[in-house]
Amino acid sequence: MEQDASRGRSSRTVGPRHVVDLRLLRCFIAVADAGSVTAAAQQLYVSQPSLSRQLHRLEREIGLVLFRPVDGRLVLTSAGRELLPRARTLLATATDVQSFAGDIACGAITAVQVTASAVTAYDVLAPFIASAWRDLPPLAVRSAEAGQVYASLDADADLVVDDDIPPGHLAVSVVTRRTVYAFVPATHDLAANGSVTLTELVEHALILPNRRRHVRHIIDEATAHAGLVYRTAEEYDWPPVAMANAAAGRGVAVGCGHPAFGLVPVPVMTADGRMTAPLFASWLADHHAVATLVDLAASLSDYLISGPGSRPPDAGGTRMGGGASSPPTKS
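That's the Transcriptional regulator, LysR family sequence above. Prediction below.
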């Protein structure tokens, strides 16, 4: 007897697992609210036999008796009373999901996940966010190692801002062209000049970006085009360390960005004018919120062009083909 009772309790406690059709829950709630299949069928615009079949199907699938007849009405059983609040919550959640999915289909995005190098995040994105430039969407910025930023678009990033050339399958906006500077201490001979030519620059001990960086290719190509060679040059991986060495008198750091350690930024000049390097914003072309990303790239471009250290308005923000511009090819 004890054994049989135990089996009975177990069979009632552990029921079959089913993925419940939301339409069946909707029928259940309608009957619970209306008190009869007839009234609920009228509200749902279905036939009474069809609604009865739906209720029986739900009871079979979940292994519960949900209603009992009392004086011509259907009254919830104790199991039905337990299930009803959860069913209401589930249907409300499903409605919210459907509504939110519709918003997403129209381009809604809760926050834009932006990936950049640590230096770009500090020099470019943090001031941009702090400026409250126009009506920006919420931006969540994270840093990545050089060479890894674009891979984040295949994970959870929406937008990448970087000075290296983006892969060809991405939509691209050139948000600005940044001046290439020679960073020197205030006591250095070059600090008193308004600019430095390549001819003058190559005579100094240089601290250059490593050859993986696009700005290094720009510097090398301009130097070779002018028929010049570096007298001596070392490479750096991280701009702050290059500037630290320049501040210590170990050479002239060359690159883009804001000066540190009291260094003076001296623009590098070529035969065509100031040497510049592009800054790219990139995203997946099939992103659901592409219009938001295009607008964000345009806002960043406008901010950088208007902000200190940027070039005049005709220098940046180049966009083509629905927000994408063609990046230069890698050397």
